[in-house]
Structure formats: C-alpha cells, structure tokens
Write a structure and sequence with these properties.
heterodimer; A: about 525 residues; alpha+beta; Arc Repressor Mutant, subunit A; 3 domains; about 20% strand; elongated; B: about 100 residues; mainly alpha; Histone, subunit A; ATP binding (chain B); Aspartyl/glutamyl-tRNA(Asn/Gln) amidotransferase subunit C (chain B); nucleotide-binding (chain B)
Chain lengths: ~525, ~100
C-alpha cells in the first residue's frame, strides 16, 4: 500500500559524517521474495510474469464466496530451504493467519500471511562488505535473521486521472489480480547495529548476499527491477553510547542494491537533523525517490493499522516432519561466497575479474563453458565482454540471449583451432544470437573462415607492398612497427578473412626482415 | 466477565468499515458483551492442557502439487465487476477512504 497524503518537499539533513559522529544507526530490513513456483500460493493459477491482465485468476485468488485455498507444496519446500540456508530453526508446527485490511490490491480484504508462527526463525547470515571508495577495508558482518514467513503477493493497481499517475489526485484506479496470490517469502532481520558509518554498505551487502543465496537455491528470479525481490528499510538513530533504540521510519520499496545504500544514508542524515533540533522522529512509512535521492512522508501509523490478525480457518497447519527438513537440508547448494572463492582460485581470475563475472550473473555459465572444453580465460572474455554487452543492450540476462555454454566452447574451439579470428568470432556470435544456428553452422552459412591458403595471402601481401613502396622501404630499413599499416591493408584486401599474425609473418619474410 | 465498551465497538466497526449510528452502538455494545461472555464459558471447561484450537479437523500438511490448473478468462473474471477497463477491475478513488 502506498498512499501519499502530504506534499513532497525536501527536508533538512546534516552531513553524513557529522551525523555519524553523534549517532549510532540501527537498521532492520524486510525483504520480500516472489518464489518461482509454477503456480500461486493457494490455487493452481499460473504465476508467470507479464500475462494479459486478469487472465491468471480464479475464484480462490479473486476471493469469490465459497472458494477454498490449498497450500502449494513446492512453495512450502522453498520456504523451508530458504530458512535452512539462513541458518534458521524450522517450525515443527505453524499456521497461516489473515491480515485484514481494506485496500483493493487484495480482493479478499485480507492477505493470507503468517503472524506469530513463522515457518522459519532465529537464523543468521554472514555478509562480506567490500572495501569502499574512501579506502576503508573489507569486513564481515553477521546479520541476525528474526524470521522468514510465507504469504501471498497483492494485485497491481494502476491509478488513472490526475496529473501524475500517482495515487494522489487520481480519479479512479484499475486493478490486475494476476500477481495476487503469488507465493512470497518475507525475510525480516533483527535490529542491525554496530556497523557505524558502514551501515548503509552493510545493508546493501546483505541484500546482495541474500540475492546470491536465493539465486543459488533456485527459488526465485530475484529480479529487483521486475519486483520479484523488494526491500523495505527501517532506520533509527540513537545517540552514541545510548542503549535504547530510537523511533524508526520504514522506507518502502527500495528496489535496487544501490538504492538500498542511498536511501538508508539519506534517512540517517534526515533523522540526525530532526534529533539535532531537539524534535522527535515521527513513526511513519517513507517513500524513496530514485531520481532525487530523497524520501518523503507516506502514511503515518494509525489505528487503521490494526490488522486484526487471526488464524486462517480455511487452511490446516503446516507441520514439516524432521525427516523432510533433513531431506531438504540435503538439497542446499554450496554457500555462494565459498563457492566463488573456490572457483576464482580454480580459474585463476583476479578479484576484479571475478567481480565482473559475478556482476554479469555469469558464474554458472562460465562453469558450464569451462566444463564444455573452453579455457577459463576465453569463457570469461566472451561472457563478460561481447555477450554481457549484448544482454545489457537488450535488457535481458546474459543467459537469456539464446547462446549456450556449449556454443561458447565451440566458438572458442574454432578460434584456437585457427579457423576464425576474433572479429570473425564476434560475427559468428551475432549469428548465434540471431538464431541462425550453432557457431560452426553460422560460420559455414556466412562463409566466415580464415584463409589458410598462403598463396592467396602472399598475393595480397605483394599487391599491398607494391602499392606502398615507401612503407615497405621503412620496414626493410628496420622499422618493423611500420608493418602494422601494411597488415591492416592486407586484412582489408582479404576482406578480413585472414589470420593477421600470419599476414605479418609473410610481410616480414617477403621484405627479408627477421620477425 | 468481559466488558466491551461502546468505544470498543466503534473502533472495531471502524476497522471493519461498518458505519454505525449512535443508537446501534449502544445496542451492539450490550449484545457483543453477552456474546463474548458466552464464548468465554469455554475457558471454564478448558484446562491448561487443552491447547487453543483454530480448526476442527485434526489434519496438518494438506497441500497440492505445484501444477498449473486452468484459470478463468478475463471476461469471466470481470463478469460480476461493477466497473472494468482494459481487462482490469475498476475501483473508486482510493484516497477518499482515508
């Protein structure tokens, strides 16, 4: 629910370092993750993203009278696996609850959630915070996890009329319930304190670590830009040395890693200004504005926030057997941070190279590409270079280009085998992305092949030398680097289909110069 | 035993978005108080070893496999909607309710 009832204006802030000299920031993060199950939490409607409005609804997720929910078994397993990966205790017995509120994003007038009996609780995760721009060193911070519980997503409202498309000033709203009922896991931290001036970085690193972990578990798409992972950030300040937590604000829907850090930084500087003035923090939700980098007041907490939770009478309790919990524990993947360290050592990448690989989401594909026979260096070059650029330009994941690890390994084989040079390989890749077939097929179809026949290359060399007697003379006189201009012309003459290194050898040999 | 005030009823009515007149509040406060008392009699027979019950059936883990079932069409879903636009449910302006 996002209701903005007050005008947007810039509030006072104090410089960040100054704020930190007087106050200790305390954070609490709530991360919502949409599971990647085929169906919704309580009904068999498809849970895919981007379908035509209201084509994935049924009496259950529309809240029609008499419709009865049934729990998605896979969603419960995913919830347990997430809990285990976060070192949580898994409840032996827990229930769903109704969270009652009136807002059209839930047609039932309640959200089926968990209240005081979450499926997973009391966990932790170690977060590696990288060195920052100010030169402060990397460190590890343990985030305590309060709980991870199961619930369902809401529908998507669009506000019509008014000037801004926002809820404020809208004439009416229209709602698409395709998203209503998609399984959500909400992961809530305990208050995070002790990070001092690195607090915003810790928050960002936590969300990033969580994203990697959930991706490794293969339980969610974790696409923050598509809303399959969303973050609410609670921030409060207490005077340095104090023991009682301050009043917090909750900044909603901070939906990129960078924004998590920026929004928390901003709230710290805003709270400090209010406290410095001797005033009190108003407990409320805040809205983050990506463009201006500030938060604005949302809804104050009020009596209407009494959600009248009560146990959901239409669902029976979830009581995972200890055998099932242990079976699921056996399916947990290697911890992503440990796995990264292991792979980096095996592949011989530098820290910077490994970071690029991770940022490009290419760890798995590189692993598969190397397994298919490519060298780690070549695999990295293609996936974080040409392919990452193409994926970026198309706004898709590097794995969604239609290029497989086997393709890249095959392409690398064509290059190391001397059939293609680099620029030809890039053309071949373009053909593979365009769906023209595998690398060898594309190379055949497009007639891309280095000329292996020295006769044709020698003819081109002699033609270019004859046309550039002055340059040839310089090379003959010992200025070997001048041959570069000649190589370019020979390659042009060969329409790019020659091995540049071989062309250089032939030029020097023809001129009687030692390479 | 219980003691539901008129203000309690007004508060609950507000949460449930039920508009009540003054005379209704007076009448309902008394009636609800009685209902709570009656239900409260359960406490007299339930000893400490009887856990609170939220469901009459002694079942747990009733689940379904994660398999897609047919959904309604958008036309069917919207058939009873008082208002619709572009395949979406139309709802009155939201802020007025605040």
């Amino acid at each position: 629910m996002t209701i903005s009832t007050r005008p947007v204006h810039q509030e006072d802030t104090v410089p960040y370092d100054e704020a930190l000299s007087r106050y200790e920031p305390v954070m609490g993060l709530e991360v919502h993750v949409e599971l990647n199950t085929a169906t919704k939490m309580f009904c068999g409607c498809a849970a895919t993203f981007g379908a035509e409005p209201n084509t994935q609804t049924c009496p259950v997720c529309l809240g029609l009278p008499g419709a009865l929910p049934v729990v998605n078994a896979t969603a419960v397993e995913s919830a347990i696996r997430i809990g285990l990966a976060l070192n949580c205790t898994i409840a032996e017995w827990c229930r769903f609850a109704r969270k009652n509120y009136f807002y059209p994003d839930m047609p039932k007038n309640f959200q089926t959630s968990q209240y005081d009996e979450p499926i997973a609780f009391d966990g932790w995760i170690d977060v590696e915070v990288p060195a920052n721009e100010a030169g402060e060193p990397p460190f590890t911070f343990r985030v305590e996890v309060e709980r991870a519980h199961m619930e369902e997503d809401t529908g998507k409202s669009t506000h019509v009329g008014g000037s801004t498309g926002r809820i404020h000033g809208a004439d009416y709203s229209v709602v698409d319930y395709n998203r209503a009922g998609i399984p959500l896991i909400e992961i809530v931290t305990k208050p995070m304190l002790g990070a001092g001036d690195r607090a915003p970085e810790v928050a960002k690193a936590y969300v990033s670590t969580l994203r990697d972990l959930l991706r490794a578990l293969d339980v969610s798409d974790v696409r923050m830009e598509q809303g399959s992972m969303r973050c609410d950030a609670n921030v409060s300040l207490m005077p340095v040395g104090a023991e009682v937590l301050g009043t917090r604000t909750e900044t909603k829907n901070v939906n990129s890693l960078r924004s998590v850090e920026r929004a928390i930084r901003y709230e710290i500087t805003r709270h400090a200004a209010i406290l410095d003035a001797g005033e009190k923090i108003f407990q409320e939700t805040r809205h983050w504005h990506e463009d201006t980098g500030i938060t604005t007041a949302g809804r104050p907490k009020s009596d209407a926030d009494d959600y009248r939770y009560f146990p959901e009478p239409d669902l029976v309790p979830v009581a995972p057997s200890r055998e099932d919990v242990e079976r699921l524990r056996g399916t947990l993947p290697e911890n992503p941070a440990e796995r990264r360290r292991r792979l980096q050592a095996a592949w011989g990448y530098t820290d910077l190279e490994m970071r690029d690989v991770v940022n490009a989401g290419a760890v798995e594909v590189i692993q598969d590409t190397v397994a298919s026979g490519a060298s780690p260096a070549a695999a990295r070059k293609w996936w974080t270079g040409d392919l990452a650029r193409r994926a970026n330009a198309q706004g898709v994941a590097v794995t969604d280009l239609g290029v497989t690890p086997a393709h890249v390994a095959e392409l690398d084989g064509l290059v190391t085998g001397g059939r293609l040079n680099d620029s030809m390989a890039r053309q071949v890749l373009e053909g593979v992305v365009a769906g023209e077939g595998g690398p060898a097929e594309v190379a055949d179809a497009r007639g891309l092949e280095l000329v292996q026949d020295d006769g044709a290359l020698q003819a081109a060399v002699e033609k270019v030398l004859a046309a550039n007697p002055d340059v040839a003379e310089k090379v003959r006189g010992g200025k070997v680097q001048a041959a570069g201009a000649l190589i370019g012309q020979v390659m042009k003459e060969m329409r790019g289909q020659a091995d540049a290194a071989r062309a250089r050898e032939l030029i020097l040999a023809t001129l009687g110069v030692d390479a | 035993m219980s003691n539901l005030s008129r203000d309690d009823v007004a508060h609950v009515a507000m949460l449930a978005r039920i508009q009540l007149e003054d005379h209704e509040l007076d009448r309902l406060a008394g009636q609800l108080d009685q209902i709570v008392d009656w239900v409260g009699q359960v406490n007299e027979v339930a000893a400490a070893d009887v856990p609170p019950m939220s469901h009459p059936l002694p079942l747990v883990n009733v689940t379904r496999p994660d398999e897609v079932r047919p959904s309604l069409t958008a036309e069917q879903a919207l058939a009873n909607a008082p208002d619709a636009e572009d395949g979406r449910f139309g709802v009155p302006r939201i802020l007025d309710e605040e």
